Amino acid sequence: MRHSPGILVLVLVIGFLEFAVDAGMIRRALLPPPSATAEVLWELLSTGEFLPPLLSTLKLVFAGFFLGSAIGVALGTAMGISPAMFRLFEPLVELIRPIPKSALVPPLMLFLGIDDAMKITSVTLVVTFPVLLNTLQGVRGVDRVMLDAARTHGWGLGHTLRHMILPAALPFILAGMRVSLGLAMVLAVLSEMLAGQGGLGFLILDMQRSFQLRQMYAWLVILAVLGLLLNSIFLLAERRALFWQRR
Amino acid sequence: MAFLGLDALGKFYPQPGGAAPARIMQGISLEVPEGEFLAVLGPSGCGKSTLLQMVAGLATPSEGEARINGRAVAGPPPEAVYLFQQYNRSLLPWRNCRDNVAFATEHRLGRKPARAAADEHLASVGLAGFGDHYPWQLSGGMQQRVAIARALAAEPALLLMDEPFSAVDALTRIQLQSLILDIWARRRLTVMLVTHDVEEAIFLADRIAVLTPRPSTIGEVIEVGLPRPRDAIATREAPRFLELRHHLLNRLLARDAA
Amino acid sequence: MTQATRRAALMGLGASTLATPALNAQALTKMRVSVIPVLDVAPLHAAIAQGYFAAEGIEIDTSTTAGGATGLPGLIAGQFRAVFSNGVSTMLGVREGQEFKFISGASRATQGPPDILAVLVRKDSGIRSGKDLEGKRIASNTRNNIVWLRGMAWVEKTGGDWRKVNTVEIPFPQMADALIGGRVDAVISSEPFVAAALETGQIERIGWPMSETQPGCTNAHYVGMGPDLARNGEIFDRWARALHKGVDWVNERLGQPALLELISNFSRVPMERMRNVALPAYAKNVTAAEIDELVGTMQRYGLTGRYPASVSLIHKTAQ
Amino acid sequence: MRPSSGLWLVLALMALWEVSARLHWVDSPNWPPLSTVVVALFHDIASGELPPLIGGTLWRMGAGLAAGSIAGVVVGLAFCLAPVTRLLLGPAVELLRPIPVPAIIPPLVLFLGLDDPMKITVVALTAFFPVLTNTMQGVAAVEAEAVQMGRTFGVGPLRRAAFIVLPATAPYALAGVRVALGLSLVVAVVAEMIAGEAGIGHYLVMMQFAGRAPEMYATIILLAVLGYALNRGFVAMERRAIHWWFALGRQADG
C-alpha cells in the first residue's frame, strides 16, 4: 500500500510510547501503556460493547448532517437564484453564522430539552452554514452562457434547477458538505458531553472524570477511526458524484 | 561541431500490467548549427512539446541524449530558455511586468540590477512604460511580449519555443512572429520552435523538421531557402513559400488521413 | 474582583516589606489553586481578602474550572498545587492509582436541613419521594459525582430503588428549564441554583439529599499531590494555616451580610438571591470516618473497586 | 447599505424575542428580554470588565491561529514538495484529523495542563487542518508551467518554493485560514470555559454559575459581533494581500 512507510512510523511511535511508559519516561498517570489501551479496545470490540455508544453518536451525526445539508442546499439555492430571497435572509445568515454554535446550546436546551431534538438541532445548525454558503457561491457561479442556453431551449425553472444549476453547483455543495461533516462530529460529541446520557462524547468525558485513562484512550481511538471512516466514505462518494470533474 | 545536437532521442512510458511500453517517439537525430532557426513541425499529439522539453532539460529522454555545446543535457541548461505556449500560466500574476521579467535574473544579479535591466527588456519588445502593470491588465499578445522580454533577460544563446503564438489572435500572431525574427537577427540566437502551424514554420525557419505520427520520428528535413529579411506580407506571397506550404500541408493531411 | 483583592493584599504586604527589609528578603511563594465558582470556596476567598495568605508569605492564584473533576487532571499535570474537589472525584482518582492527598476539609453537609443540595420537582408533579421517581428521569450535573451519589442515597432513603431511576446529565444552570419544560421529572440541584429555581414559583423542593441521608456527611475537600507534599510540606503547613483562618472568619459571620457580600463578589451571584441561599458547614479537617462513609456509599451505588485505607490519604494539615 | 427586507426580518425576530420574554410567552429565568441583554452588554463593556477579557480571548485565538496556520502551510508544502514526508507522516495526520476538538481536550489537559499552552494548542490544532487541506489543494493547482519556468531560468528548488509555489498557493491557504478563523474563536472560548481566570469563556462560565442569563446572552451577542467583525477584517486584508487573485476573478473556496 501507498501508506506503508507511514503506518510503520505510526507503529514505531506507538512502540516508543510503550517503551517510554515502561521505562518510566512518561508517567502512567498521564498515559497508560498503549498495550493496555489496546487490551481495553479489544475487549470493547470483541464484546460488542462499543456498538451502542457508536450508533448513538452516529445517529446524531447522520441526522444533523442530512438535515443541515438539505436546509443549506435549499436555502442556498433559493438565495442564489432569487434576489428577493437573498435580501430577505442575508442579514440573518450573516448574524447567526459567526456565533459559536456551542454557545447556543443553553438556549437550545431551553427550547428543545436535553434529548435528541436538542442535539440534532445543534448539529444541524453547524452543518447548515458551510453548505448554505457554498451552495450560494456555486449557484451564483453558474455560467451565464449555460443559463441563456437553457432559456433558449425553453426550459422551466424546475428543469433548469435539476439539470443545470444543481449539477454545476455540485462541486461547491460537496466541498461545503465535507467541511460540515467534520463540524457535525464536533458538535455531536460536544452536545453529548454537555447533556444526556450516552454516546462517545459522554463516554470520553466520563472516563476522564473517573480517571479511567485506558478506557478514555480506547474510546478516543474508536472515535478517531469512526471519523476516518466517515471522511473516507464521503470522499469516495464525492469522487463518484463528480466523475466528470476528474482531470 | 553543431551547437545543438539530438542523438537518437526516444521517449516511452511504461504501461501497467506488463504491457509493452507506449512509445511516443524514437530515433530523433538532428544537428543544429549555431545561429540557425529550426522549426519542428508535426501533427498534434506527436510529442513535439515532449521533444522540446527534453532539450530544455524539463523531461528526461528514455533513450539517446540531447547535447548543447557538446555537453549532454541533464537539467535545464544555462544556455537555453523556454518560451511557453500558455504565457498566462508561466507569468506570475502576483508580480507586475517589471518584476516578472526580473524573475529571470534576480537570483543571479540581485533584485535591483535585475529590475533595472527588466525595463530595458520590456522596451525592446515594445512595452516601454508597462513595468508597473500586472500581466492580467494586458492583452494576450502583450502578455506574450512580457514572456519574451523575460526570456531575453536571461540572455540565452538558445531559445526554445513551444507553439508560442497559438493562443493569440491571427493579426497579433503575425506581429509577434516579426518581433521574434527581429530579435533573432539582432541577438544572433539559435532557435528551436515547435509548431503545428505550417505557415509559421515556413515564415520563420531556416530549416523545417517534419515529425511523423506516433511513434514519432523525423520524416524529412527541408531547407526553406526564402531570403531574409522576411516581410510579413510579401514573403507569404512568394512562390517558394506557396510551394512549401503545398508540400507540407499535403504531407501532414495525407498522414492524418492515414 | 478576586484580582483586585489579591492586588490589595499584595500592596499591604509590599508596605510591610519596606518596613522590615531584612525579614522578607525572599519572594512570595506562588500557589495556584483550582476552584469552582460555588459557595463552598468562600473561606479561600476570605483568606485572600483578609490577607491571611500574604501574611504567611503565600500568593494565591485562583483558577476557575467549570466542573469539579476538571481541576484534578490539572493537579496531575502539575498545573495546580491544590485543587478544590468533590470527594467522589478525588476517590475515583485514588482508586485508579493517583497520588491524591486531602490537605484540608472544605465543606460538609449541615446536621439537618437546609443544606446546599436539594431534590427539586415541578409543583404540580405530585412526586414526593424516591419511590415516586421509579421509572422516571432525574437529572444530575454529572453522573458518578457527589451530587449524583447523594441523590441516589436520597432516592433509596425515601423508598425508591435507585437502579430504577434514570439519571441524565444536565448542567446546573439548565436544570430549572428542563424541569419546567417537562424534560425531566426531578433534578438534584445545588445552591445557588436551588434558590434561582425556587424563584420561578413553579418548582418546589422535596428533599435534602445530604443532611437527610447522612447528617454532616462529607462533601468537598482540598486535594494535593503526595510527592509535592512530601517535598514541600512546610509550604502546605503555611497554606493550611492561612486557609483555616479563612474558615474561622467565615464561620464567625454565618448569616451576616459581610459573608454574603464576599460570596456574591467572587461568585457573581446577585445579592438579592444570596439572601435565600443555603450554606454548607465549612470544615477544616477531614476524618477517616467521613471518608470511610463516602467510600461505603460509593461501593453501594456501583462505584466499586479497591480503595486504600482512608487514614493514609489524609495529610497532616487536614487532621 | 440601504435597509433591505432582510433587515426587517432580523428586527422582527428581535422584537419577537423581546415580547416573548416580556409577556412570559417563554417563561424561564434563561430567557431574558433582549433589552436587558443589551443593557448588560453595554454595562459590562463600560465598566471595563469585558474589554480585557475580549483582549485575552483574541490573543489566545490569534496565537493559536497563527501557529496552526503556519504549521498547516509548512506541512502542506512539505507533503506536496517532498512526498517522502507525506509517506511518513500522512497516516498519523489522517488519524488525528477527524478527532473532534472537544474529545481531544481531556488528554491534552493531562499533558499541557489548563493554561495558555493547552488553550493555544487546542486552537492551533483546530486551525491546522483546514489550512493544511487548502494548502495542499493550492499546491496541486499551481501551474506546472510556472514551476518549469523557474527551472529553465536556473532558479533553485527552495527559491522556487518560496517565490512561485508559496505565492500561488496563498489564495487557497488564506481561504483555509478564513475557515479556521471562525473555528478558532469558538474553540478559544470553549477552551477558556474549561479552566482559568481569563477570557470570554471564563466570563461565560461565571455568569452561567451565577445564574445571570442577561450576561450569558450578552456574551453570545458579543461573540456574534466579534466573529462578524473578524471575518470582515480578514476579508479586507485578504483582498489587499492577494489582490491579483481577485483581479483574475477567481474564488478559492471550491
Automatic annotation (TrEMBL), chain A:
It is a multi-pass membrane protein. The chain crosses the membrane at residues 60-86, 181-205, 217-237. It is found in: Cell membrane. Pfam families: BPD_transp_1 (PF00528). Residues 54-234 form the ABC transmembrane type-1 domain. InterPro entries: MetI-like (IPR000515), MetI-like_sf (IPR035906). Keywords: Cell membrane, Membrane, Transmembrane, Transmembrane helix, Transport. GO terms for cellular component: plasma membrane. One of its GO terms (biological process) is transmembrane transport. PROSITE patterns: ABC_TM1 (PS50928). SUPFAM superfamilies: MetI-like (SSF161098). It comes from the Bacteria. Belongs to the binding-protein-dependent transport system permease family. This is ABC transporter permease.
From TrEMBL, chain D:
Belongs to the binding-protein-dependent transport system permease family. Coiled coil: none annotated. It is found in: Cell membrane. Residues 54-234 form the ABC transmembrane type-1 domain. The keyword DNA repair does not apply. One of its GO terms (biological process) is transmembrane transport. Keywords: Cell membrane, Membrane, Transmembrane, Transmembrane helix, Transport. GO terms for cellular component: plasma membrane. This is ABC transporter permease. Its main location: membrane. It is a multi-pass membrane protein. It comes from the Bacteria. The keyword Acetylation does not apply. The chain crosses the membrane at residues 58-83, 95-114, 120-142, 163-196, 216-235.
